[in-house]
Design goal:
The protein has nine helices and two strands, in the order H-E-E-H-H-H-H-H-H-H-H. By secondary structure, the protein is mainly α. It has a two-stranded antiparallel ribbon with strand order 1-2.
């Protein structure tokens, strides 16, 4: 039990560190920089079980809010979290919550109840893991774009077309490419990681 808890804490700490590192790799192309956060947060959401991904994202945001320079461009504090690009950061937490709930619901649905004789005769069909990963990764990306665009729209006082031009269009192709890699490697990492 203690070993399992230690492994879980180690995996979560490593995930927080990797998200922070992915934010440091930042290319400023406007108010919203290009980072590897989409890749790393997407990977965390798909490989960590239960609500561990929620804890990881929440801890990452709290550490950045407290002053550690772990947001994009080595920024930190309330000005970074609530600045023009802050909607993306906050949407990561919403994505983690929603995806954790969905994964838990789908896991429970795919396990037949011992008293259900029909379930024993005809096992329920569930989505293949890679298809489910792809759908959850797309959901994560949509929530990120929605949260980031709406926050930028209100914080910068621009219209929707301008917000989409800044927050979505420059990132669609790179983000989709990153998530394809995430979906390909997530099942492999789930098999080898002790979580």
């Amino acid at each position: 039990m203690a070993l399992s808890r230690t492994r879980t804490l180690t995996a979560c700490a490593l995930a927080v560190a990797l998200i922070a590192l992915s934010a440091c790799i930042s290319i400023p192309i406007g108010p919203v920089p290009f980072t590897l956060q989409t890749f790393m947060v997407g990977l965390v959401l798909l490989i960590l079980p239960g609500f561990q991904s929620v804890a990881v994202v929440a801890l990452y945001l709290l550490l950045g809010l407290a002053g550690l320079p772990i947001f994009a461009g080595l920024q930190a504090g309330p000005a970074a979290l609530f600045g023009p690009a802050g909607g993306f950061l906050m949407s990561y937490l919403l994505s983690a919550l929603l995806i954790s709930v969905l994964r838990r619901a789908l896991d429970l649905k795919s396990k037949p109840h011992p008293d259900n004789h029909l379930a024993l005769q005809r096992p329920q069909r569930s989505l293949r893991p890679r298809v489910l990963d792809a759908l959850l990764a797309l959901l994560f990306l949509l929530i990120s774009y929605l949260g980031g665009s709406l926050w930028y729209l209100f914080s910068a006082g621009v219209g929707l077309p301008a917000a989409l031009l800044v927050c979505v269009l420059p990132f669609v192709i790179p983000d989709l490419a990153k998530l394809v890699v995430v979906v390909l490697i997530a099942p492999l990492l789930r098999q080898v990681l002790p979580v």
